[in-house]
Structure formats: structure tokens, C-alpha cells
Amino acid sequence: EGQPAHFETTLTPVNDGSMRVEWFCNGKPIPQGHRFRTTYDFGFVALDILYAYPEDNGTYTCVATNVLGTCKTECTLKVSGKSGLLLDTMDRDRLSQLKNLENRERHRADEVD
Questions:
Q1: What is the distance in angstroms between the CA of the first residue and the CA of the last residue of the chain?
Q2: What is the DSSP string of 53-109?
Q3: Were both Cys, which of 8, 63, 79, 111 would link to 72 (CB 3.0–4.6 Å)?
Q4: What is the Cα–Cα distance from 78 to 59, expressed in whole angstroms?
Q5: Are 57 and 72 in contact (CB under 8 A)?
Q6: Nearest residue to 51 (alpha-carbon basis) of 30, 34, 32
Q7: pTM of the entire structure?
Q8: What percent of the chain has pLDDT over 90?
């Protein structure tokens, strides 16, 4: 998680003006954005994910289309997630004080009832 991912392939003919290259993830077009960069230059085709997250998991497809037809190649990305929350306290004294305050509130609620 948070690491870059890079996919690349090559296309011929290199100087085909009718060539259109598209990238998909799980069948949906990948939007150009701050995390996704595509390259198509002299037959070199690449997709870079600047930092990948578990929601980026799936099958990535590169589709090339020209006047002669369509060709595609696929690969799979699996991103393992990091645990999101630090469950251990870094300040034992403050944790103890919070527990004391919670206990006081519980005792006050019991006295009112």
C-alpha cells in the first residue's frame, strides 16, 4: 500500500496515426488524474500508478485500436493494505487518566438513578 505500480508493453507499428490506446481497470476506463499516468510514445505504452491502494486491486487491460482492428493485454494487481489504526497508546499516563474520568462519570450516573 502506498507504493507505485508500473505496467508496460510495446505496440507496432510505431508511427500509426490511427492508433488509440486505452487503459481499463476491471472493465472501467482509468481516468487521468493525480495518481494515474499513461504514456504512449514511439510504440512504448505504460501505465503508472503513483501510489497504489487496496481499492486499486483488479485486472488492468491495455486496449490498442487502429484501422486494422483491436488488440488487448491484461495483468492483475494485488495490493495488500496496511492496518489503519494504531490501537496501542503512546502515553500510558493519559490513558489512565481517561479511564478514571470515565469511571467517575459512570458512578455519577449510578448515583442519579
A1: 50
A2: -GGG-EEEEEEEEETTEEEEEEEEE--PPPP----S-S-HHHHHHHHHHHHHHHHHH
A3: 63
A4: 9
A5: no
A6: 34
A7: 0.69
A8: 56
